[in-house]
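ok so for the tutorial part 2 we go from a plain amino acid sequence to predicted structure tokens. step 1 is just haveing the sequence, like this:
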Amino acid sequence: MKFKEIKTTRAVSIYFLIILMGCVSESEKMEYPETKKELFEESLFSKQIDDPYRWLEDFTSKEASDWVNKQNDLTDTLITNKYQKEIKEKLEDIWITSDISIPFRREKKTFYYFNDGIQQQAVFMMKYCDECKPRVLIDPNKFSVDGTISLSDISVSPNGEFLAYSISDGGSDWRTWRVLNIDEAEETEDLIEWSKFSYAVWESDSSGFYYQKYQEPEETLSDINRSPQLFFHKLGDEQKKDKLVYEDKKNPDLSWSIHVPERGSYRILSIGEGTDERNFISISFDKSLNFIPLVDKFEASYRFLGGNEDTLWFFTNLDAPNGRILSLKITNQNFKWTELIAEKSFPISSASIAGNKLIINYLKDTLSKVEFYDLKGNFIKEFPFEGNGTLAGFYGKLDNSISYFEFSNFTSPQKIYELDLDSLDYDLYWETKIKDLNVDDYLSNLQFYKSKDGTDIPIHIAHHKDLKINSDTPILLYGYGGFNISILPYFSKTFYMWIKSGGVLAIANIRGGGEYGDNWHKSGMLLNKQNVFDDFAYAAKYLHSKNIGSPQTTASLGRSNGGLLVAATMLQYPDLFKVAIPQVGVLDMLRFHKFTIGWAWESDYGEPEKEEDFLNLLSYSPYHNIQEDVCYPTTLITTSARDDRVVPAHSYKFAARLQERQSCPNPILLRVESRAGHGAGTSKDKQIDEIADVFGYALNVIKEK
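step 2 — the prediction. this is what the tokens look like for a chain of 705 residues:
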């Protein structure tokens, strides 16, 4: 290994000239703030890997921070334009919209989030009865002046008397838990620190809750998170008295979640590894929490749905890539598995138990199809809901008579309905109304195209019905393609802003997601990951072949794993895109496992320490595949300085090398938010600023070409 500082390949000779001009002529190459370059080479599986910007992995250092400030200064100058200003003004106008989350009930109390569109963060509300006036339980806008400390997760005790809630500081995944006495509107002295990737799971008697905790790190934003512990916290106790329920020091990559059925004394322990959905299942017959295995093979996913005194219900994809529903009958500590609902030709998106019914939400070509069954698996009816889009919700308890669900798609804002679980009739409970939005003015349709290997891929295309679509039309192509996550039709102010600005929105349901079950996921993971990039590229080719935009009018956008998608595709197919916008992306595929929870993604990406996986990762790793003689699209890389999930070093290193090697005047810009994380909990103002910057810049590049 060699380590030596060498002279940077970029200077700042005309940096201030660029700031004054705000543009670059076609004949000159873009100049960027000076970036230190170091000779750093290592041999991995007989491959010489150079990493001249590894120093940026120390992303909290003063040197890295100074570099980021200069990058932001340049970006702020070049992204300022009339479209950015117009979009920000429109967003600030349409954002002022009252909105709620899908409600849920505990005893006679109803809980939900409410956002009036003016405050930075949504508040958590409660109603004592249907006719009662709602009151605010938690107002996260009081946590900080700028709205960057957010309310993360909430959990109401079974008796409806206590609320456990967690707080995130500046977008971090680390959580601090507190408890509120709901009726007295007073915070208790309970305090839980250093929790991460955890819910608060209440005991049935509401005496306390279970949570997952990691050891306090030396560096909170970058240290690897391993060896979690499962604890039980009794209300009123200090955290140091919490009972350790489960840990496995020999297997530090395992993590835990516990389930407490509504009835019965047994407890269910789910044991998983990283983001791999396969898991073990163990059971304890009483509160002693002495667990014995139910499922001891790491071969399928088991999701606990609910249970009564002698029966448990699970979703599983064991021998069923599209999923099926099983019951587990418990008699004198003996078990009997029974298939209640067999696998169908389309996958189960979600399943729940409420009002003594199994509610199964299927996906049929990415659109929701809901069916009701009794607890013995007997079919009751298909849900008679009119409308093509996404249905979500249907949560509840065994004895609930009321549940709630939501409907939306890319052009229809959320509508929430109250569902009578006895009659299965429903009534409108809430409708989100966006200023000046007439749903009938917009169109959204589902089409299919063939990828490189001939696989049919669904793509949703949405736009204003009066838009004249041709090769000059701005296109926003969005995708994700990983971790069994389905990108389903839903209404987003972000996407609506693009459509409202005269563009076409295209959502490609590429492989790697869960739109067609486990097989769809597997065909886009590990050694099949290249399919994902081809699917995305061929979505652009399909649009262009239909005269829906062109390579000169197409912007690609993706976040997190979608940031990897955008970056890898723009490198492999640079001629298909005018603008590329990789956001909080995983961009160094040889070192993603070195930070925080990155190791957990090996289930989807592979293990860089294994040769076959390493070579596959190297073949598409964005940071390692930037060429010196290629003209890449104009690129706006966005990240956050406090992102402790996909650490910003990914984006920093990618930006530095792409700036160094770009062979044409197309700018490579880096936008870094200082008080935000991976995305969750971002304040209203910061969301608006980011959307305006990203879309305004993309439209300016496309329209002013």
